[in-house]
Structure formats: structure tokens, C-alpha cells
Specification:
By secondary structure, this protein is an all-alpha fold. The chain has three helices and no strands.
Length: about 120
């Protein structure tokens, strides 16, 4: 009788040991997978930075100008003979700057002044 109890006890201990070892192996496996994913993420972030740099380099004005001039295209840089003048609805001063819009007096808002706890700042010219 003692031998069967001993064998049953050893079987239970063995089963729990195998389950514990299996769980520990899974934990290490997840740790290795996480390190691999972190390494992949770092590699992708570096690659993303390189791609963004390449895109910005290709979009730069210097690169586009060199490319246009190298292709023998009929495009050219602007000079003083190719200036377009536009008519506007806003009258201009003699210097070419727009005239300031006339000031309109605002009536003080009574509710705003009642509920306002601090003074309001106004920009003056």
C-alpha cells in the first residue's frame, strides 16, 4: 500500500514539475520573441528615418532645380520680365502696401464685463 501511495505522489510531483518547466520555457520563449521584435522595431525606425530623409532630399528646391536644368526642359527661372501684375479690390497706398481697413467702434459687452474677473487687453496702433 505504501508503494502505490509513493508512486501516486511521485506521479503528481512529476506532472506538476513538467507543467512548471513548460511554463518557464514559454516565459523564456516570449522574452526572446520580445527582444527580436524590439530589434525589428529599431531597424524599421532607422529605415523610416532614412526614407523620410530621402523623400525630403528629393523634394528639396535644389534637387528639383538641378533635375529641371539637366533635362533640357523648356522651363526657366523667373526674371524681372516674367512678373505678373494682378488687380485687387483693396486700394493701395503709393508705396504699394494695402490701406488699413477703417476702424469700427465696438460697443462694450455688458455681460462680458460683468462676468469678467480681469481686465481685457486691447491692441492699439
Amino acid at each position: 500500500m505504501k508503494l502505490t501511495k509513493f508512486l501516486k505522489g511521485m506521479a503528481i510531483v512529476t506532472i506538476f514539475s513538467v507543467i512548471y518547466i513548460n511554463l518557464q520555457v514559454q516565459i523564456y520563449d516570449f522574452a526572446y520573441q520580445a527582444k527580436k521584435k524590439e530589434k525589428d522595431i529599431r531597424r524599421l525606425v532607422d529605415h523610416n528615418g532614412n526614407v523620410i530623409y530621402s523623400i525630403l532630399k528629393l523634394k528639396s528646391a535644389n534637387h528639383l532645380g538641378v533635375k529641371l536644368l539637366a533635362e533640357n526642359s523648356n522651363m526657366q527661372f523667373m526674371d524681372s520680365n516674367n512678373v505678373v501684375n494682378l488687380e485687387t479690390h483693396i486700394p493701395l497706398k503709393s508705396e504699394g502696401h494695402p490701406v488699413a481697413a477703417p476702424k469700427t467702434e465696438k460697443k462694450p459687452n455688458i455681460l462680458a464685463s460683468i462676468f469678467s474677473l480681469r481686465s481685457q487687453a486691447e491692441a492699439k496702433q
